[in-house]
């Protein structure tokens, strides 16, 4: 009896298929037929596709509701095709054909189905019966023999955790403590995201924070236990609210291998649909992916292994994807196996010379104990029988799908054919999703490398380069990272930097790495496995466990805890990438994973690209540091040694070289002893700044000392220095110089003889506050061959100050304004009564305040003051 009817016509365009699916889904959900929605949507999708895509006609979809089921009809206007019969002996054709799949699905899923023809239309109909249940029963399964029941521990523990609206744990039962090792007082109040390894078993693109906000969620992930291990769990989440309206999430968790306790049962095909009309068993693979199919690769792979395991009633299933060169297979999805240990592990495609030693052919192993190592992935898992089939696209191996069982002799060629049929249908979708993932990864990798290059190019500091290298790899590429550096070919690798995503584990990791020999500096490109850290961590954990057996009970856990934590941190895969720059190994980049974890091949390739850029940046920072050290050493050699004490005269010098990293530029000063109790002093300015100017500075300073101590007068000293500068040829630079001889007098004054060769004139500050030039200008050095210079005599009375500066002081600019000689004189007038040091400091402050910009020229200030006699 028909109790409701809904109909809609869809035009012959591609988007009509999606619209038809939505129409059927909305209609059946509105009728409360949620149990058959997925099957109805799959069948409707195929039939409407045949009509609007292949036949090119409009399609009319009619839904008819009855008390015990639903009938759906799809009509098109292309009746000329062959009429399929439901009698025995008629083959439905290959499942790989473009057409005919809708009728095959009807045979597999529907309770009843049929095809009706008229002169203008063709009607394909199918009926889906609602499952029979007792009153109050939501889902139910058949009675089965004891040996077919799922395995579980002697006592099944169900962790009950409640998460508040902020994502923090608010309740933690005893089973949760037993499963994960944390007492309630330790974990309540902390975010669940701190302990969840999400997704432990992929299959959803939803993050844990989003999943906790959903009204209901079910799936797999992992919980980091107190001993550092990741415990795979199967979880069921329900969002609730308290009487005050505050929302929270109740989470039920069991061990992943006990998922049957919580997992929502999968619907099987209706009893009438288990056999086709020709009497042969149908393969329900086309429905086990479900609708809608996962839109991400990990979700598709995980759904595939779970449905494959259920289809063959196995204890475990796995799916591996082939590398580009088809030499290795990488584990991408497992169920019933320790996924934390197996994910991204790699096994060779060919493990032997025979048919059963290659993943390119289907294989059935009735008892793995008779052929140990035949399936490396299952070593040590307790699985006895296994069936594996290849995934191929256009004849190329793209992966391998396998189902395993703990009992021997569980599988035969019949199961291999069923699994191969499944693999053939899923291979193209998997390859398409894999290529899409690779494209996204490559785009992300390119963006990552561009950002990394910018960061590495932005510094020439060695320590900062090391820190950047580690911070870019953790946690993006690895859980922890260590950088070894090699100073030269004769040096041993040195552990220079260690980083872990958990800062509390860095010290333990550094101590562990410090106890083992560093990896060999092999220049061969690419990542290579380094087992030493994991082995050392395992041995340290064993030793700590043995020692703790003799301790008092209250000491247990205090000493062993950190050791076990470190062991879990480095217990996974560890790889070494050489840092090669300019054809020399300058270090190694070590990347590690936590306990029993593995790297993705794409991440290793990205790490290799990063290591090349990091090696060049690290070598550049080394070269820069070496050259900077040499430059600074040479510059310091140009500075005068400690200046002598001049009796009766205060002397102060302030010197600022322009340019980053420069200690000496074109400006220089000096004060030294000469014969007859006199002192020579000089302040000069070489044209330009930087190393070239500093070279002439060194020539001038050393020549002045040498000539003055030979007894030459001031003019003679400068004339000979002028000739030395001109002899430099193209490297010569002109030089302004104020040179003088200072002789303290018995009456407390000081007598000066000065020569001012093109330099800013020295200023004399008298006690009454007046300021005057203390010399006359003369030609600068390094321009003309024949110079006629003369010296002038200046007497500094007690309280007088002589101020000598370079043009970096007087030419200090702020826009169009310049300090100039007059501005300097005004500053000096306010320095009456100050010591030589105070005068120099006040002048420098005035210069710095005059303009906000950093100085572009070297600056030097030399002040001399004759102190006033002390009064009793």
Automatic annotation (TrEMBL):
Q: What are the PAS domain coordinates in residue numbering? A: 145-190
Q: Give the Pfam families listed for this entry.
A: GAF, GAF_3, HATPase_c_2, PAS_4, SpoIIE
Q: Does the keyword Hydrolase apply?
A: yes
Q: Which UniProt keywords apply?
A: Hydrolase
Task: Identify a single GO molecular function assigned to this protein.
Answer: phosphatase activity
**Know the name of this protein?**
SpoIIE family protein phosphatase
Native species = Streptomyces odorifer
């Amino acid at each position: 009896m028909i109790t409701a009817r809904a109909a809609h016509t869809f035009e012959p365009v591609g988007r009509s298929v999606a619209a038809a699916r939505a129409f059927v889904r909305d209609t059946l959900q509105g009728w409360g037929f949620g149990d058959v929605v997925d099957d109805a949507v799959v069948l409707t999708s195929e039939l409407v596709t045949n009509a609007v895509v292949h036949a090119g006609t409009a399609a009319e979809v009619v839904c008819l509701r009855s008390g015990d089921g639903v009938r759906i009809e799809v009509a098109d206007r292309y009746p000329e095709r062959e009429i399929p019969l439901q009698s025995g002996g008629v083959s439905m054709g290959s499942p790989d054909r473009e057409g005919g799949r809708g009728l095959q699905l009807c045979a597999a899923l529907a309770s009843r189905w049929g095809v009706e023809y008229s002169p203008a239309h063709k009607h394909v109909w199918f009926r889906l019966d609602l499952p029979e249940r007792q009153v109050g029963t939501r889902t139910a399964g058949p009675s089965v023999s004891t040996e077919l029941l799922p395995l579980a521990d002697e006592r099944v523990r169900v962790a009950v955790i409640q998460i508040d609206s902020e994502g923090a744990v608010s309740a933690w039962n005893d089973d949760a403590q037993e499963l994960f090792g944390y007492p309630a007082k330790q974990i309540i109040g902390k975010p669940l995201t701190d302990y969840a390894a999400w997704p432990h078993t992929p299959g959803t693109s939803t993050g844990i924070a989003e999943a906790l906000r959903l009204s209901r969620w079910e799936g797999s992930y992992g919980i980091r236990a107190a001993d550092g291990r990741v415990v795979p769990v199967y979880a069921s989440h329900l969002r609730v609210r308290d009487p005050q309206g505050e929302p929270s999430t109740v989470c039920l968790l069991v061990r992943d291998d006990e998922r049957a306790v919580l997992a929502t049962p999968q619907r099987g095909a209706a009893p009438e649909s288990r056999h086709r009309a020709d009497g042969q068993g149908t393969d329900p693979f086309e429905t086990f992916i479900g609708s809608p199919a996962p839109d991400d690769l990990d979700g598709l792979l995980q759904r595939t292994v779970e449905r494959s395991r259920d289809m063959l009633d196995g204890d475990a299933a796995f799916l591996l994807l082939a590398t580009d060169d088809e030499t290795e297979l990488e584990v991408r999805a497992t169920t019933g196996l320790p996924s934390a240990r197996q994910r991204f592990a790699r096994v060779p495609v060919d493990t032997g010379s025979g048919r059963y030693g290659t993943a390119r052919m289907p294989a059935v192993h009735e008892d793995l104990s008779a052929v140990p190592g035949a399936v490396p992935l299952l070593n040590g898992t307790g699985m006895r029988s296994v069936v594996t089939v290849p995934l191929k696209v256009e004849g190329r191996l793209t992966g391998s799908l396998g189902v395993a069982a703990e009992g021997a002799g569980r599988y035969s060629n019949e199961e291999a054919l069923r699994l191969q049929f499944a693999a053939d249908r899923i291979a193209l979708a998997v390859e398409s999703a894999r290529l899409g993932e690779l494209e996204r990864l490559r785009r992300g990798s390119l963006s990552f490398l561009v950002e990394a290059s910018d960061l590495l190019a932005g510094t020439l500091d060695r320590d900062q380069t090391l820190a950047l290298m580690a911070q870019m790899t953790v946690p993006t590429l690895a859980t922890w990272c260590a950088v070894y550096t090699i100073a030269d070919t004769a040096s041993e690798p040195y552990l220079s930097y260690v980083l872990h995503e958990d800062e509390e584990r860095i010290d333990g990791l550094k101590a562990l790495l410090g106890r083992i020999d560093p990896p060999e500096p092999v220049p061969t490109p690419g990542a290579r496995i380094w087992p030493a850290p994991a082995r050392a961590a395992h041995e340290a954990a064993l030793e700590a466990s043995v020692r703790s057996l003799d301790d008092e009970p209250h000491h247990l856990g205090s000493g062993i805890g950190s050791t076990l934590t470190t062991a879990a941190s480095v217990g996974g895969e560890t790889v070494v990438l050489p840092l090669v720059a300019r054809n020399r190994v300058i270090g190694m980049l070590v990347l590690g994973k936590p306990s029993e974890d593995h790297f993705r091949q794409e991440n290793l390739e990205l790490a290799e690209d990063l290591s090349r850029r990091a090696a060049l940046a690290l070598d550049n920072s080394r070269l820069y540091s070496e050259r900077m050290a040499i430059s600074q050493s040479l510059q310091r050699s140009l500075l005068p040694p400690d200046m002598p004490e001049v009796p009766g005269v205060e002397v102060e010098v302030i010197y600022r070289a322009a340019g980053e990293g420069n200690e000496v530029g074109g400006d220089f000063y000096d004060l030294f002893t000469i014969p007859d109790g006199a002192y020579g002093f000089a302040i000069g300015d070489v044209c330009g700044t930087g190393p070239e100017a500093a070279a002439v500075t060194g020539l001038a300073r050393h020549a002045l000392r040498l000539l003055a101590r030979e007894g030459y007068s001031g003019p003679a000293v400068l004339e000979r220095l002028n000739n030395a500068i001109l002899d430099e040829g193209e490297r010569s630079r002109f030089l302004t110089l104020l040179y003088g001889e200072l002789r303290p007098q018995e009456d407390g004054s000081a007598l000066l003889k000065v020569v001012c060769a093109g330099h800013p004139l020295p200023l004399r500050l008298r006690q009454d506050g007046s300021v005057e030039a203390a010399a006359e200008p003369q030609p600068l050095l390094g321009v003309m061959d024949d110079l006629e210079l003369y010296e002038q005599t200046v007497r500094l009375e007690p309280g007088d100050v002589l101020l000598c500066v370079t043009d970096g002081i007087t030419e200090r600019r702020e826009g169009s304004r310049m300090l100039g000689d007059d501005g300097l004189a005004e500053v000096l007038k306010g320095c009456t009564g100050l010591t030589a040091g105070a005068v120099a400091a006040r002048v420098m402050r005035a210069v710095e305040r005059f303009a906000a910009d950093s100085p572009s020229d070297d600056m030097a200030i030399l002040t001399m003051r004759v102190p006033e006699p002390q009064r009793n």
